[in-house]
Amino acid sequence: MPLIPEEPQIHESAQGPRATPASGRTAPTPRPVPGPRPAAPPRPGRPGPVRPMPAQRTPREPVVAAPGSSVPAAAPAAATPQIQLIPASAEGALDAAEEAVDLLLESGRAPGEVLVITTGQPHPWAAHELSFGETAYWAQHDAGDDVFYADASVVARATSRPVVVFAVNGGSDAVATALPLALGRAGTLLIVCGDPQQINSVLGAGV
Questions:
Q1: CA 39/CA 48 separation, integer angstroms
Q2: Of all residues in the chain, what percent are helix, strand and coil, respectively (each to 5)?
Q3: For the chain, how many helices (H) and strands (E)?
Q4: Which of 23, 41, 72, 127 is most buried, by the most CB atoms less than 10 A from its CB?
């Protein structure tokens, strides 16, 4: 008599049909592809997820103070260099200036950033270089790679440098004229070596 096929038994542990390759062996079940991970909570003390940047804001109109009100004004840009005064006599002003230059170089200033101006006797370096002619003397000034020493009478020809050392070693009449020029040549710092009373009288006159 004909055989009645038995109904297939379904086991609870079955995970669905598996692909059978041509060789007849059962292929391993493919591993699941990991999806996007949920965002981890931010750690204490650290910023959370980066938020999108807000849209660019429209620039605000300048604030106009109403009559009788006070609005703090913006600080003006620093245009005047700092002034340092080293008390010294006319005889010791040049030595004080030399010490100031040494300190500037030791603090990291480049030699070409320093200009030294004398009101009395010229600095020995300037006198020596001028003995070779003014052309060679001013060529070293234009090179700008070393400390340059100039007399107050020619300071108008010198170009600006970050630091100017002004030695009042005589020529009191030249101080009132040369000190404002020295201040104009100083980019960030003006060091004045001389009599405080004389210097303050010039500075107080509107320098």
A1: 10
A2: 30, 15, 55
A3: 5, 5
A4: 127
pLDDT 10s digits, 113-128: 999 999 999 999 999 9
Which uninterrupted H or E stretch holds 99?
Answer: helix 93-106
Q: Is the model's pTM score more than 0.70?
A: no
Coil/strand/helix, residue 24: coil
Cα distances (Å, whole numbers) of residue 206 to 1, 32, 52, 84: 132, 84, 55, 16
User: How does DSSP classify residue 107?
Assistant: T
Residue 5 binned pLDDT confidence (cut-offs 50, 70, 90): low
Show the beta-strand stretches assigned E in the chain: 82-87, 114-118, 148-151, 161-167, 186-194
- CA diameter of the chain: 143
Q: Which tokens in the block code for residue 101?
A: 């230059």
String of DSSP letters for 173-198: HHHHHHHHHHHHHEEEEEEEEE-HHH
Whose tokens are 């620039």? That residue is 59
CA distance 91 to 86: 13
